[in-house]
Structures are given as structure tokens and as C-alpha cells.
Predict the structure.
Amino acid sequence: MPIAVASERLIDRVIEGERISPADALELYRLPLEELGALADHRRKLALTEAYDGSGNDVVTYIIDRNINYTNICNVYCKFCAFYRTEKDSDSYVITHEEIDQKLDELTAAGGIQILMQGGHHPSLTIDWYIDLLSHIREKYPHVNIHGFSPPEFNHFAEVFKMPLEEVIRLFKQAGLGSIPGGGGEILVDSVRNRIAPLKANSDEWLKVMEIAHNMGLNSSATMMFGHVETLEDRIEHLGRLRAQQDETGGFTAFICWTFQPDNTKLRAEPVGSAEYLRMQALSRIFLDNITNVQSSWVTQGPKIGQVALRYGANDFGSVMMEENVVSKAGTSFRLESQEIETLIREAGYTPRRRNNWYQLVD
Ligand code: SF4
């Protein structure tokens, strides 16, 4: 890791809350880790000062939700994915309403208010199947926000249903979809996407779904999965595209980044460590000056680094996540109960508060 001193002028600009350029980001990236972390912590404070009646700098939020992967059947074969199966695999599945009900009953009993519902690109499920599923959940569990279907899934739906994208998103919203996760963003640079997921939505298509959704009043999160075949410049280009989209439509509620988890995947890449994770999260907090919330990724980094990440730009501890099927298939399986999350937040010097998808406090 080359260590250099960023110009004093640049550091002053970061402290003053000014927007940084890609060239500035490259310069900041080379700062000693703890200096970059301190700048990100400062920017977190600037972003959150007004939040929660002025207590935003003392608060770290989290949500109780549950991952539901409605099918693992997928014909996209991303090289970094250990989750997908083909229809012929004996452990392939499509979820039933009974299974959904059981998961939602458990979620409700645990005080949960949201599901993160994503799946493989199933080649033949019809629009009626999805609308039935959404309507069923909306009717039976009105207290649960359906945070579902990543942009590449929407692109896939438009193709399979032979419908304009806008129409698919509109019908899903009408049936109960509440917000959209930023999954499938990986790195929004097509030369990278072509190497790791050549059959998946490209960068423009990913952003187009977000643009349509935001303009329809559906908020979403923004993500970055790094530490595979991309360069540092690619990561910064990715952040630049998210920031430009947010300038236009303003619908991203939060940003979350995580490192590629290699086990059981076809992609051979040396895993990047926690220092690199913290460095990129800190840089992202500074670069993404128009996205208020940054989630720490304890699911991939483990609880302790998740906790340290709260001093590297993050103001949110993500979710209790009662069920996780994707990262765990790639060899990483950390689990935390809400009490443990609250203890980790308190130990880091903050007050834990429960939130909903829109970062409103619910406790
Ligand atoms: S990441 Fe998603 S789209 Fe890619 S293979 Fe896995 S399930 Fe399919």
C-alpha cells in the first residue's frame, strides 16, 4: 500500500464538506488508513448532524429484517456467485406461499418489519406469479415492507414478460413492492461486468432501473462489491456513477459496500482484507456526499470489523438479517441477534436505534 501525504488543500476541502473529484479520490486513497478513517468520520458527522432531532452523531441505526430468496434457479451464471442452481439441480427451489408465511410469521414474532426479497433470474416464472406473491404478502403482512428485486432482476422480468420496464416496476409497486435493494451493482463499469457477470444487466441498465424507480417514488439502496478483477479506478468510476444518479433522482437512501467472498465460486481472486474494506468504505463516505447513510457490512466482515467500520464513515449497522443464503454459500456466515447488535453499537460509543427502510426511527 503506497502511503503518501494528500495535499493540505485537499484535506481542508474534505473537512469543509466539499465535493471531491475522481483525481482527489485517488489521492485520498493513499492516505494512511487511520487518517482516511478520521476524514470519513468527520464527513459522517457533517452528514448526520441534523438527523434524529440533532442526535444523529450519537446514533447508529439498524433494522430487523429477513432475507428471502424466492428462487435459486438462475440462468445468468455469475462467476462470483455460489448461490445459483439450474432447474435440473436436486436442491433447486421456488418458494411457496406456505413457506413465505412461515418465514414472515417468524419475522413478525421477532419484531421484524421488512423482508429483503431477491432471487435468481428464473427463466419462466410469469408476471402473475410475482404479482400474486407481492399481493399475498401485502395483504397478510401489511406491517412488513417488501424491499425486493434488484435492478438486474427487473431487466430480466422485462425480457421474460415482454413488457416495458416502467410497466413492470409500476405493476410491482401497485402490488405491494415498497423499495428496491441495490443488489447486482457489483462494479458499474462494463469492462469489469463483462468479466465477472457477462450475462447480467450492464451498468446503464442497472442505473436505468434505479432512475425509473426513484422517479416513481420507490427508494433504493446503492451497493458496491469489490475486491475481484476491478482496479481502484474502476471502483471510483462506480462511485462516480452512483453519485451522478443520486444528483439526478435522489432516491438512494443508503450505500453499502462489501468485499467479494470467493468460496465455492468460479472467480479466482485473492480476497481483500479488512483494512482494504475500511479504506474503501471511508473513501466512499467522502465521495458520496449526496447519500446520507452508509451501512457497515458485518455480514461479510464479521461483527468486530463491522463495529470498527462505524469509525470509518458508517452510521448504520445494517440488519439483524434472520436468514442469509447468498454470502453464506460463499463461505462467510456471521449471525447476530438484535441484542448483540445493540451491544456492539454501544461498545463503539453510540446509541443503538431501530429504524425502518427510510431511516425513520421505529423504537
Ligand atoms: S448473482 Fe444473481 S444473477 Fe448472478 S448467478 Fe447468482 S443468482 Fe444469478
Q: What stands out?
A: The first strand starts at residue 59 and ends at 63.
